[in-house]
Amino acid sequence: MIVYPPISSAQCRNLAAAIICTSTVGTTMGLTWPLLSLILHHQGIDSALIGLSAASQSLAVLVVSPLAPSLINRYGMVHTIGWCIAVILAALLLLPTLENVEAWFPIRFTLGAGVAILQIASQTWVNQIAPDHIRGKIIGLFGLLWAGGFAAGPLAIRFTGIEGWPPFVIALCLTAVAALPLFFASETMSAERSYFPKSGLLTVFCVGGAAIAASTVLGILDSVNDSFLPLYGLRNGLSQESAVTMLTVLLVGVLSIQLPIGWAADRMSRRGLLAATTVVALLTCLILPHAVSSGLAVWPILFIFGLGAGGIWTVSLVLVGQLVPSRNLATASMLQSVLYGLGSVLAPPFTGLVLDAWPNNGLPFVLASDCAIFAGLQLWLWAVKCERRSPK
Description:
Blueprint: H1 9-21, H2 23-42, H3 47-64, H4 68-97, H5 101-129, H6 135-160, H7 166-178, H8 189-192, H9 201-208, H10 210-235, H11 240-265, H12 270-293, H13 298-323, H14 329-357, H15 362-389
């Protein structure tokens, strides 16, 4: 029987700080994307411009993510995350103050920048500290709070509506509370400066494989669902409350899978789990048009879709921690963030055009195509690996 060393109290405090702070990412993303899309839709803005507005927030990921390892190395985990939360709070204050589509472009860019660096720092911190034998459970808890914050956003919109300050006040309060654990965390940069070398991105990508590529898939799924799923519901005859609830149900699925899939990732093939969750997401996307037209069937389908999408996120992050050496984890997290941002930037404008041309079923088509391409990539990587191992 293998006996693993216990986690120290300092490690526990740092893990708690990183895990709880990441709920900031979930809250801001889960609330701002659907909220701002609904506000712009209420103002009569067309879908293509709504997509560009959402893309401005994701564009920041591409611009600032390459700077994250250097910032973390210079200022440390605690200070970097603290400043990111301050930037997020400032952006959330400006959004309801300057309520028009033109002003929101730079504000959403700033918001995206703060969220991007915070996410890179927190993911790196957790994966560096987590022992591999319980990495799945820790990442599952990490994802649970992230998804909880994500689900809280649409739920808040249902109770507060989209007018005025109330939904933004909720986001501000949750973001501020998420920063409290930083006061109890210890700075670890003196021991971890070697974790931020200048390593080749191609090398990291080759080592991480599909686990790294999953970030692009998730960027597409998250940005498209957050920006357009409520609009998809409205265009298929649902009320505003029910349309927003669609996103909440999906996110409840994401929330529900985190601990079980983390437990499974410590006991089963992690690559097999990644493939299985991708297939689940693909099949539910294909069923969604039939489910939304039949009434009640849409709710379990959205929940199962959330299980698949949430599983992809958790298992891919666990795999990155397993496959990529600790000294390269910051580079890997940065690459994941850039790929996530690439998917988030490109997907909303494209989806807006698809919805303009195909209002009722364009959204499921985009989501299913995303999952199908990722499933094909995993199959190709598996075939290449088997070919390399086969005797000549």
